[in-house]
Write a structure and sequence with these properties.
The protein is built from four helices and three strands, in the order ααββαβα. The protein has 86 residues and is an alpha+beta fold.
């Protein structure tokens, strides 16, 4: 299995940034799961995004980004996120 490390996360984040306006036009306000520059799913909440995506992909092997039409979706910084009960 190919490792999904920091390099891959950065590439997926850059893919998200490059397509941000398209994603917002297509999906509106949403949380988008991305892996290897592919949209895995689009969800209403981060908890649902992680919960549903981990049914097919292990945690830590994809990113989830908020798309809300403003740059706050990709400029706010969270250093640690834990999901309990998912």
């Amino acid at each position: 299995m190919k490792e999904y490390g920091n390099k891959e996360r950065v590439e997926d984040f850059n893919y998200f940034l490059a397509h941000y306006d398209e994603f917002f036009k297509q999906y509106g306000e949403a949380f988008i799961a991305i892996k290897e520059k592919k949209v895995l799913g689009v969800y209403d909440s981060i908890g649902t995004a992680v919960g549903e995506t981990t049914k097919q992909y292990p945690r830590g092997t994809f990113i989830v980004q908020e798309c809300n039409g403003t740059e706050s979706a990709y400029t706010d910084c969270f250093h640690n996120c834990q999901f309990v009960g998912i």
